[in-house]
Sequence to fold (114 residues):
Amino acid sequence: MYDDLKENIILLMQHPIARRPISNLSDEEREKASDLLNYLSTLSVDENYTLLDYIQMARLEYALGELEYRTTNDAEKVIRHFRTALQYLEKGGFDLSINKWTELVSLRTKEDTE
Fold:
């Protein structure tokens, strides 16, 4: 399985998605990218994720969400990918709560007034 993962990572690195925005890809390139990303996300499932692994999975899910948005009208799939990306970011240590936002804004305003 590890060789399969490495091979698909190499394929992804050689794919135009690694060099161009998704909006500039052809339909065929988007379809191939979607297949690769979906396959990589299924191979990457591990019970022993590190914080970095969660961030990497968030990147895969975000790219899948963007691809779904550009290629389908399936809003549920798009939302599912973006929500999963956000959940992985939170598991990876990013606090996306409003409380954290207000805390950081108040710190910044304190710095500006000093």
Q: What stands out?
A: The helical segments are 2-14, 27-43, 51-71, 75-91, 98-113.
